[in-house]
Amino acid sequence: MGEVEHQAALGKALVQGLRVKFPDVSFREQTMPVDETVVIMPASLLIPAVKVLMDDLGIWHLSTITADVAVDSGGKAETGELIRLLYHFWCGEGVTLCVELPGLSPEVTTLTGLIPGAAYYEREIYEMFGVTFDGHPDLRPLFLPDDWNEEPPMRDSTAKAAAARGDP
Amino acid sequence: MSKLVVPIGPQHPLLKEPLSFRLTVEGERVTESAMRLGYVHRGIERLCQTRTYVQNIHLLERVCGICSHVHTTTYCRAVEALAGLELPPRALHLRALLCELERIHSHMLWLGVLARNVGFDTIFMYAWRDREIVLDIMEDLSGGRVSHAVNVIGGVRIDLDDAHRDTILQQLDLLEDQVEWLLGVVEHERTLQARTRGIGVLTLADVRRYCVVGPVARASGLDIDLRRDDRQAPYDQMHYEVPVHDAGDVWARTLVRVKEAVESVHLCRQILDTLPAGAVSVRAPRRIPAGEAVTRSEAPRGEVIYYVRSNGSDHPARVKIRTPTLTSLITLPDQLRDVAMADVSVVLSGVDLCIACADR
Prior knowledge:
heterodimer, A: alpha/beta, 4 helices, B: alpha+beta, 8 strands
């Protein structure tokens, strides 16, 4: 993901809109292939940013939410670990909102109040990564068996799999 | 009236897919429904992290048993974007050819399932008979009827000569006649309409709220199609219609899908007529530069999205897949509310569920 060079029109409009509404907050903009604008923001600004997307720019299609474990401690799961949530929106071009949550107790406000279609994506991240979504109407596991008592499987695996392979 | 809870699935004659419903019924009417997923959850996203980029093609081809090619296409596009590879035009055309054949195959298969569920076995037989033409073309091209193993990182592993191209064009002529005949049946046959009109209705507001994609969204009046909207090569050079309907019921979904199959036949012909000369692949590195990429494709059921993050090694650090069925599943409680028990199978088949896709 390189620093932005040729930012797409929609991503540019979003960042401008956010800067006008929240002049004190620093947003980081990046691009990722293929032609996707990424805006990294504090978790507290997620809902206001989605409102800007929906009300001001008319973007309402959430393609999915990706959860990822950011490992920057040599492949070991430590307290410095972060959970990154990437909200991929689409309206003729891709716009991704990114929030980073602390690895120890990841928690963020649910998007289901604005976009009911986010419900299953959030349930999947809840069970696979252990992220709690405040205000979700039905935060239950989606795919795992009822008697699953172990830790969230993807949360564990990302760091361990990287460490086992000795990745950089 | 007393309430009764009717369990359907994960194995049930009414529902061939492995998911489970508990329908609360009052008399013949469904009042509530609860769904349970995960019976074919294979942990594919997790498995991707333990395999190399090349091995993952084999794995991701098995996310779905129907739209296997579009999964590897979307994955390969993400990896190619990370590696900065520019694909030869011939490779893009051949990938698109398989995508369109797969769309016809998927829609014909679905039409057969729907026809079977409404008791219209003649169309079930005809649709599946004609689907064999597509499967034959795909088998001749790749060696496989449903798992084609055509994609490699950097292009495709198949090619075709002029004689083979002419044979496919002849098969497409036959296929077009059959699919257009089926379209006539769907448009005019009263028995089919009696079972599908006004059933499983989703409004335009519903599909927008739930972020529904593909034919289900287009049958509710939402004009989205990633082939056109994402300006993907080689679709940016092709001429085709995107069928949209505003009724939002199972009949509208049937019309949209069969019309799409007709358009896909036209697209296959255009792709073959404009097939550029040259190589079918470029050499790809084993280790992929660190970075992350998002790619979207229009699968037979709608938008499929892949997120791939590389840490610079020969294994991906994260692969995220969102399949279109997941967007339709969330609408089922709304669609099933106040439906007669006899129509439950029509609603369930109307959205074209692929639970292997949804569970991953």
